[in-house]
């Protein structure tokens, strides 16, 4: 539930996705930026990005972050 709330904080419209540029903000809210590592945020964003669209969808985000 904490992860969903953090995602929704950035996805205020409830569209089910965030911009890749907002990933760092979500990681800060979840207090896992340090665990991921500042240098790995871009790598993670690229991995989570949906088909080069510049967005990260909830399902893919959850599948990845839940393993952290």
From TrEMBL:
This is EF-hand domain-containing protein. Residues 1-33 form the EF-hand domain. It comes from Tetraparma gracilis. The lineage of its organism: Eukaryota, Sar, Stramenopiles, Ochrophyta, Bolidophyceae. Signal peptide: none annotated. InterPro entries: EF-hand-dom_pair, EF_hand_dom. It comes from the Eukaryota.
